[in-house]
Amino acid sequence: MVACFGGEEITTSAVDWNWSFHAFRWSGIDVRIHWSLPAFFLYYVTRGFELGYSLIGLALFVVLPMILLFASIVAHEFGHAFAARHFGLRVGHMILTPIGGMVMVAQGQTPTHELGVAIAGPAVNFVLALIASALYLALGGPPSLGLIVPFAGVENLHFLYGQERWLELVLFDFASSQSMLVAFNLLLTAYPMDGGRVLMALLWRRRGFHSALVLSCKIARVLAVVLGIAGMLMARPALAFIAFFVFFQAQTTLKQAAQLPDPGGWGRSPPRPKQKPKPWFWVAWWRERQQRRLRSLLARAEAKGIASLSESEREWLRRMREER
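^ that's the sequence the OP posted. Answer follows.
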């Protein structure tokens, strides 16, 4: 996920994730962790103990998947950050939360910037899914639709667990989680999720910055309400919290939209003034030859007088003057 800021100070309108602590710094970007992420992690570990997970089950189905998931989320956010730097946009800090990551990036100046930065994160997850799937299949793991379709390979997980094929199990689960991240980020076209920013970039090309931003936020509010209802009906508090975040961000951005400066970029090169078509080669050669003869005759007339020119040369000069 990307949060935008402008000017010299970060002025993101996203939820202010206070009470975060510094984890590490890489490539000039500070990575911070919100206090709720360790609490979230501890909750699921404790819940695993309560459900009677064995140590192997706890490690394979709770601890390791969460570590790999959030490592891939860090990679996802660095994808956004490096894409922003490629376009010359300033990058701030990154923060990890239970609902994912967020990196502070300056507002793109064109729809191309917006689209490139938004799609770079899911592209990282797509590459990770391909690598994990290739390794899984190379180790002899049974092919499954679950590698590319989230939640479609539960029977494979049970099979691999029963066979104690731990490496294939971890790779299958990781590939499936990366496919889920790609689908979730791109299919949820709610601003400021990545899919919403892709939609905003496409609208920007046709409607201009402010109109695209307002329409994207209105679409995001509707989708957030639908997502929130689905989260409550399915008893998925994480979905309900994401819905609240999306609605809050969209509503806040909508209120500030009129005050945001219009970058003025349209994603395409500005139209060039129409130029006369270049003449054919032989025409250009003939014109250049005429110019050389004109310069030569004028230089001789200036140095030696007009009498030094023959009658035909003087006639030629007269014709050239009349043509001009």
